[in-house]
Amino acid sequence: MEDNIERLRAAICEKRAPLCLAETRLxxxxxxxxxxxxxxxxxxxxxxxxxxxxxxxxxxxxxxxxSEDSLKVRDVTSSCHEVGKVEREMTEITAVGATH
Length: 100
What we know:
88% helix
């Protein structure tokens, strides 16, 4: 499970550069001096690209949160089992000590 979490974190990081690039291109198109601002195919594709990458990052973040939550539940459950095991061992030791 920890490996899955690390892979999700890496995938999110790998999306940062393409997202920054697409956002920068979109911003630069809006700042072109001496060129009328227009909505053309390139503009629409850049908007779509930013949207796709953002959606992908959001999905990865949701999966990461779900995996981290599952890991926490597993750790808590494991801790509870350990506490129960220790309590049973203490009860057995106390019972053995009481009979001697």
